UniProtKB/TrEMBL annotation:
Transmembrane segments: none annotated. Residues 1-49 are annotated as: Disordered. This is glutathione transferase. It is an enzyme of class 2 (transferase). Its EC number is 2.5.1.18. It catalyses: RX + glutathione = an S-substituted glutathione + a halide anion + H(+). It comes from Urochloa decumbens. Residues 25-35 have a biased composition (Polar residues).
Amino acid sequence: MDTESRSREGNAISSNQLAIDRASPATTPGRPSSKLSREATMEGDKASSGCGSLVLLNCFVSMFGNRVRIALKRKGLAYEEKPENLADKSPLLLSSNPVHATVPVLLVGGKAVCESLVILEFIDEAFAGSGEPLLPAAPCARAHARFWASYVDTKLPQCAARVWKSPKGAAAVEEGKKDLVAALKTLEAELGAKPYFAGDALGYVDVALVPFAPWFLTYERLGGFSVAGECPALAAWAERCVAENACVAESLPEPEQVFQFVCGMRKMFGLD
């Protein structure tokens, strides 16, 4: 797995923060606010593993950080979330992840665990007795899930960035859209007729991929295409993840929030 710094978790969402340190997903029917979700979560069993308190350093639009939100909630773990303004990174973030200085970082009793897929596996192993497992038990199935999660990180961020970080009408937008749609179609083929990537329940690959869903609207508006039109089964899967899993619904920003955030970034980049 390549690092999630620079082009993905850090620089991809760092230049325009739109008061990130104060922003969080809006409260909508069936989707509690981030603040309420954190308070509710923190009422859980704080000593569930003996690892110490859990603190998540995150940015509300980060698809990588929101993976960790989903995993923590799916496991029913108590945690505190500290929002990061990546244009003005906190001393805590810089000291916790000095190599990449990016979110997410999970502080476990004060010790830092970095990189979102690494954090997911840590949560699954350290809190094996809590909630539902993320990875399957069989070694081959685990390897299969890791492959597809790695595919998500290898393909989607790079393709998507060309769509939303390029000037309107630039050749890079069309190229990025073409590659993004191809990657989504590959993922849709892997999903097949299954409700979720591992079968009947939300699992590791679902958690890795579904935080990109709130960004689909942005990709569509800037790239001039429809995810549902190109990949109807994958679009239905994304809706299913939210509708059937509170841990997902409570963890993701609204698509319009993401789009407005990106519009602000594009203005700062001089792209609009």
